[in-house]
Amino acid sequence: MSIDPHSFKEIDPGKRILMGPGPSNVPPRVLQAMAAPCIGHLDPEFLTYMNEAQQLLRYCFQTRNPFTLPVSGTGSAGMETSLVNFVEPGDNVLVCVNGVFGLRMCDLTLRLGGNLIQVKAEWGRAIDPEAVRRAVKGRDLKLLAVVHAETSTGACTTLEDLADIAHEAGALFLVDMVTSFAGMDVAVDRTGIDIAFSGTQKCLSCPPGLSPVTFGSRAMEVLQNRKTKVPSWYLDMNMVGKYWGAHRKYHHTAAVNMIYALRESLRIVAEEGLEKRWERHFLNHRALVAGLEAMGLSMVVPERERLPMLNTVWIPEGADDAFTRRHLLQAYAIEIGAGLGDLAGRVWRVGLMGHTAQPRNVLLFLSALEATLRKQNIELRSGGMEAAAAVYEDAW
Amino acid sequence: MSIDPHSFKEIDPGKRILMGPGPSNVPPRVLQAMAAPCIGHLDPEFLTYMNEAQQLLRYCFQTRNPFTLPVSGTGSAGMETSLVNFVEPGDNVLVCVNGVFGLRMCDLTLRLGGNLIQVKAEWGRAIDPEAVRRAVKGRDLKLLAVVHAETSTGACTTLEDLADIAHEAGALFLVDMVTSFAGMDVAVDRTGIDIAFSGTQKCLSCPPGLSPVTFGSRAMEVLQNRKTKVPSWYLDMNMVGKYWGAHRKYHHTAAVNMIYALRESLRIVAEEGLEKRWERHFLNHRALVAGLEAMGLSMVVPERERLPMLNTVWIPEGADDAFTRRHLLQAYAIEIGAGLGDLAGRVWRVGLMGHTAQPRNVLLFLSALEATLRKQNIELRSGGMEAAAAVYEDAW
């Protein structure tokens, strides 16, 4: 077999404005850190970087959990890690479902032989804690799982009541923080979250490839007292924890350069400060919504259940979904997300995550969207950009 | 909770010479490609890079298998992928064991509920096909698994006879190519390998984080006719294949920048040419062995079973294992590997993988090792470097 090496050009991806559901725009500092020379996964210098990444992750998770580390896979690997280490065949697992990622946890629970109990909410709405309370009543529950920030719909579920319900039932409380991590206030210890996972390519603005997870003491106890072996070797946190812990026992080769990138993205979060970062996300979200609504478009999620970093907007009547997204990408280098599942073809998902959450991107997007819709003869009100700019000017 | 961002310095790892069991030294071109701007995992430009990476992977695997892609995890995730998609509870699985990575496949087989049959060889030796033939006799076998290049010992097992034995028994033939991939001739199609996996941080000289896999038509048929769902969601290749195939159906977010790096490392392989690359690995291996033996040190593996890219040498009497490795790292910036399992404390593992396999590294290492051992009053013969240099001069 032969191949012509010259048929493969030097890599040169466009500089997109990533306003989809992730990845978000990666700051140059993170790209540069990632390109530092690769060293060994047991090199003393690398072990220092690992420790520092863990310290910084604890800061972002707002936790003192010793077991806090990045799993060597994307956010979905973090989800699998969070279930495969705790769910044994026959365990009762309650999963809250209001979008794609809740469904994914259901799928996983069944693959692991768990007894699945679902509590559903309409797509685009938060989970109702009272519905969960009713479903839990009288059951011996092992785990209660919820998606804090449903990336498929833009809905945010409040966690405090659900934590109480889980603990009253003697269950572990598992939270998918993929999209909210480092973009809004989710405090693992204060809220009583036992198991949380995230991804790097959302509000951290690091390339995709790692999944930060944190397990509290209740979760660690359950893990250590399993009746059966974890059915995954790669994601067995008993073993992975011995590499990230004091033992430094080789398990698998860490994704060295990705960990450089993660550490740098976390350093940037620490320099900005969590609170300021949450405020920045919220401000840009308010400006975006003000602009969209001023143009006459409607948000999918009711105001008090909206995520700041993932905004779903109904596609106006007469607009061509695929054309609009393609034109935004080709003409303005702006990527936005399509609808998923029940919402496919009906909504756009506009991400304002991490480094992307900047006024320049919001204003440009509003302007580009307006032009793209007018090209399709969609009737819009004018004044979108002005409404957004007014939100910024009020805040400054 | 608060954190002092200034307590975390800018990343600045040393420039090591990576002569351990992987990662190997990553060429600047690969680091630079990895630092290109992150774009969306469904961006048309990214989809082109994915296609190209797949074409280049097929070239390196020497296969026409449509199902050839990088799994979003390290080599161990590739191993798990190669088993979790095919082994169902109760299946007979024969694993050849002559080191750590064979043992890992045994562990995984048991976690998946497979009936494990082991054929063992002494650590440091190849697997004897006749022992496998005897073990297979009269059995209904689902899968026969072998490590081509045992990274823990440096032994290379010949694959042709094992492929025949597997197929005569109606079993799939699975090969761990993590360390040999792109460093020596392993031809998936010609040999009749049904399932193979590799890693990026060995002879490809790409940072760790992805695991190239390839499945042939027999394997795909078995996958499609499973009785049970794959017990992993993240590594379910029915679904992952739909993202990498014509459907482009979202499964999980691809590790975008790692795929840039992989593509660039494969482009470098194609430019050098596989045959030349194998020759380069073999030449540097011969020079290294000539140098070590001239100094009076002994190789662990018999000559005709040796891997070119992973060289195990007995630690001479009186030498301090930990001191030697630490001194090589601190004084010469050379990383070598410690022994694992049965060989811990008794051998060193010297990698000559990908970009690391260069005369300058071999000669420097021989010189540094000689000095480090003399410092410990180990008696050595002189002439190691000269013997190595003679091998090069003969070849040029």
CATH superfamily of the largest domain in chain A: Type I PLP-dependent aspartate aminotransferase-like (Major domain)
Strand order of the largest sheet of chain A: 2-10-9-8-5-3-4
Number of helices of chain A: 14
End-to-end Cα distance of chain A, whole Å, is 63 Å
How would you describe this protein?
- The structure is a homodimer of 396-residue chains.
- Chain A has 396 residues and is α/β, with parallel strands linked by helices.
- Chain A folds into two domains: 28-270, 3-Layer(aba) Sandwich (Aspartate Aminotransferase, domain 2); 274-395, Aspartate Aminotransferase, domain 1, CATH 3.90.1150.10.
- In chain A, 41% of the residues lie in helices and 14% in strands.
- Chain A is built from 14 helices and 13 strands.
- Chain A has helices at 28-34, 44-61, 75-84, 100-111, 129-136, 160-168, 188-191, 217-224, 237-244, 256-272, 274-294, 321-332, 359-375, 384-395, and strands at 17-19, 68-71, 92-97, 115-120, 143-147, 149-150, 155-156, 172-176, 195-197, 211-215, 310-314, 334-338, 347-351.
- In chain A, the strands form three sheets. The first copy, chain A, has a seven-stranded mixed beta sheet, with helices on both faces.
- In chain A, strand 3, helix 4 (100-111) and strand 4 (115-120) form a beta-alpha-beta unit.
- In chain A, helix 2 packs across helix 10 (256-272) and helix 12 crosses helix 13 (359-375).
- The longest helix of chain A has 21 residues, at 274-294.
- Chains A and B meet through helix 1, helix 2, helix 3, helix 4 and helix 10 of A and helix 1, helix 2, helix 3, helix 4 and helix 10 of B.
